[in-house]
Amino acid sequence: xxxxxxxxxxxxxxxxxxxxxxxxxxxxxxxxxxxxxxxxxxxxxxxxxxxxxxxxxxxxxxxxxxxxxxxxxxxxxxxxxxxxxxxxxxxxxxxxxxxxxxxxxxxxxxxxxxxxxxxxxxxxxxxxxxxxxxxxxxxxxxxxxxxxxxxxxxxxxxxxxxxxxxxxxxxxxxxxxxxxxxxxxxxxxxxxxx
Length: 194
Hints:
alpha+beta; CATH 3.30.1330.40; seven-stranded mixed β-sheet; two-stranded antiparallel ribbon; 5 helices; elongated
């Protein structure tokens, strides 16, 4: 630990010396003095002064910049202004999507056909939302799947894998006692944005 602190201080001194090199050279250079005793005293006082300056410089700690939190943007489509939550929230280069159910945007109703049809619609909705806010399915890093019945796990996975063939995000899946609009599946995710 002490070696690391000393190394940082040495680097700080090197930078200080680099920028003030001419000043230090001028300070060290001495005009010839006739009396050898006087010259010796002058040289000693200059060396002591320089050592004092170095101790002062080495003891100074560079100031660290305070961490600036990334900007937060709450993203809501015009058609979703009446909802009590954001469609997505962007924090820095991360995009957090709210949970999506299998509602067809053209009819505003849950798609018929069971778990497979709902999972496909959910993932289409997620894909559209991600693209609207500057990301894509291959940039998803985490997803959470909520099922109304855990026995639908295999059927949901059969459709899910079609949308994530290569870049498979980390995922949690669990069953609930019910989902909004009587849906059988709800998926939320987090993705990276450029």
